[in-house]
Design a protein that fits this description.
By secondary structure, the chain is of the alpha+beta class. The chain has a domain of about 120 residues: Aminopeptidase (3-Layer(aba) Sandwich), CATH 3.40.630. It has four helices and eight strands. Helix 1 packs across helix 2 and helix 3 crosses helix 4. The longest helix is centred in the middle third of the chain and has 16 residues. The chain starts with 6 loop residues before the first strand and ends with a strand. The mean pLDDT is about 95.
Amino acid sequence: MRGTIELRTERLLLRRHHTGDAKILHEEFGCDPKMFEYSGWNPYETAEMAENTVREFIASYDDPRFYGWAIDLNGQLVGTIGAYDYDDEIGQIEVGMSIKRDCWGKGFAGEALTAVIHYLSEQEGIRNVTAWCASDNIGSMKVMKKAGMILTEKQTGALEISGERYDKLIFNTDI
């Protein structure tokens, strides 16, 4: 396993994070409630949290089972994508992503997710890539389907985010 390597798509560079990303992640992701509306977590809420998160990413790049990319468009950070909780026994890993709001609807999430799925399955030999979203998160559902993932499970009322209950939709690449 090689972990986080540079990946290129038609429009995007998926690269390792660098310290300069923290400011953008805080300002564009951590301060915008829409960015974490359906996840319930915000690792970029304060400048310090964003800096710590990016430092943790950078420190983890020596681990060949760590997958964490900054999504870069022409030198501008537009999102993040990572894979985690690798289960060697069943050959499964979970992926999560975030695209800053002014870049929604431009296909960046699907392009990045497709590249990461291809890398994880074809080059890293991981048989199943899984992801989930809240049932009201139409954008994430569309991205996962566009990347070839299949809805395999619906967990009724399984997510509680900011006092609201949502169904949890689980998507997979291998069924």
